Amino acid sequence: MIVDAHLHVWNRFDGKIGNQLPVLPLRGGMIQIGDRELLGMPAYLLDCCALADYVVSEFNAAGVDIGVVVQDYMDGVQNDYLLEVLATFPGRFFAHALPNYWNTDHVAQEVEDIFRRGFRGLKLPADHLLGTIRLDDPRLMQIWGRMEESERVLAIDLSEGQEQVAETENILQSFPKLHVAMGHFGMVNRGGWPGQLLLARHENVYMETGGIVWLYRHEGFPFPDALEAILRAKQEVGIGLAADDDRLHLPAEPRFYPKSCRVDGGGKETVAGRQRPPALSAPRARTPSAAGPTYYRGMIAYEQ
Q1: DSSP helix, strand, coil percent of the chain (3-state; round to 5)
Q2: What domains are defined for the chain?
Q3: Model confidence, pTM
Q4: Which of 14, 60, 87, 285 is most buried per CB count within 10 Å?
């Protein structure tokens, strides 16, 4: 099985940064942030709509089985559209909902409504909340507790640096069984290490590489510094996957998994379509379904 562990889709691009600065679509992938105009997505997206239809076509061409959809306030809230996507393409996506964390007094109720609609995960774009709302605010802590209890998945993108690490550590200490995916590889070249990386030492926390190509886009292929960062992560927290019953599992020891990875019946793994280099190899942890929770609840089965 090949899983793309971090992607965005939307049918209407209309967001904000920090709940203040508007982000608007223009044409041909160009967007406007305040007074600036820049290329914010592939130029072939003429209408600035990143539809799931395009993603599924690319998945089919490349042999990718499942995509994990995250959201960001920069794109605008896509909850309604994602429910349509899940219904249109059953078994191809796991989607995280995005609540309004700024409505802090009432967001817990909104989250309950979101869960009733069928979502099994939430996105926390923590970088947008920096300096305004603490991640361990008591009004949010009840949400994280609810998610731990119901075995849902929390996808977090922390801000640059390590300012939000202590708040996240408080969450993880309070809810050790909460399933967490740390995005953007812990902002490795934006001052996020070692603090963000070391959060992955918690049993149910994983570092995913969804933004590593973006972080190192100035390098171009084959991204030598990005590969070096992966090796450093392996040394600090481990790397590996566990396959059982054709599902991607929470490994017993490793804490990091590649953005696109293949798990086949023979236990072979590839990264980005290539055989994993020997330097990235590690003992694989096999976690039987009865002994450990499946990451993203198997993704295919949860929506049915």
Answers
A1: 30, 20, 45
A2: 2-10+50-303 (3.20.20.140)
A3: 0.81
A4: 285
